[in-house]
Specification:
This protein has 192 residues and is mainly alpha-helical. It is built from 5 helices and no strands. Helix 4 (96-125) packs antiparallel against helix 5 (128-191). The mean pLDDT is 88.
């Protein structure tokens, strides 16, 4: 279907955002379960509740337009969430929270771009109440992003220190193995 007007584009943006929010609602519990930090887990739980309210706002806006909020699946969010899920699965426990934050911030930035665009369209089309609701959501996304940035400052340092500690243990174990191998080799030479 060809989009012929700004209003049609606006509705498509709303539907895309609605799909994104529905996907996030399904993904956040997995991120909460995977997180190790109580602060991160709490922030994600809080954002899950906010996300449900944001989806309800989109439903309200779409109802006022006489449109259904559900349409095609948001492929951008699907990709961002899949990448985030893969990243979290593929990292060591010591850096998992840092990976969760990285994935969550990508999601937040995608949403901020979408909500900023939808709000602008609503303003241009004269939908002041919808624009206000979209602005509220945009501000919530910015707050969530800032919370994640604040958590990252602490948790990324912990991940760095844990990584250094793990590298040191690996180096130490490697050195011990190397020393044992040298002793074993020299014993073998003496016996020959």
């Amino acid at each position: 279907m060809t989009t012929n007007s700004l209003q049609e584009l606006y509705v498509e943006q709303l539907q895309d955002l609605y799909s994104a929010e529905q996907q996030i609602i399904k993904a956040l519990p997995k991120m909460i379960e995977a997180s190790q930090s109580d602060e991160l887990s709490s922030a994600l739980k809080e954002h899950l509740e906010v996300t449900k309210k944001q989806a309800n706002r989109i439903e309200t806006i779409c109802q006022e337009l006489g449109e259904e909020p559900e349409n095609e699946k948001c492929k951008g969010m699907e990709g961002a969430l899949r990448e985030g899920s893969d990243l979290v699965k593929d990292v060591a426990e010591e850096v998992r929270d840092a990976a969760i934050i990285a994935a969550a911030q990508r999601v937040e930035h995608y949403e901020m771009a979408g909500y900023g665009t939808a709000r602008t369209y609503a303003n241009l089309l004269g939908f002041e109440e919808a624009a206000s609701m979209l602005e509220q959501t945009l501000e919530e996304e910015k707050e969530a992003d800032q919370t994640l940035s604040d958590l990252a400052e602490e948790l990324n340092v912990e991940a760095l220190e844990a990584g250094r500690s793990a590298e040191g243990e690996e180096t130490e174990q490697g050195t011990e193995r190397g020393a044992r191998a040298k002793k074993s080799a020299s014993r073998g030479k003496r016996a020959a």
